Amino acid sequence: MTAISLRLPDDIEANLKAEAQLEGKTQSEIARQAIMEYLARREKERFMAEMVAAGRALAADPQAWAESREIAEDLVDEGLDAIIAAERAAGIDPDEKWWK
Prior knowledge:
The protein is an all-alpha fold and 100 residues long. It has helices at residues 10-23, 27-60, 62-89.
């Protein structure tokens, strides 16, 4: 495992030390966990930004928009039929209102 040196303001070091004592962990463990969580969050944020950009690009393309609607409409009909069949097979009446 690689070691790094980290300069922290006194107040942050005091908070880190207090948290480590409360958790029964070392300061290194607390810092390592915080860094791992930060990196995971940043990776997720980048992924979500890429997904949003891809969605916007598709939404701006009339041909892609038409094709996606066609696919969605096909899947809605087929998917709904499959759900109704599965409910009937499980003894559930799909026409019965489950909400009151």
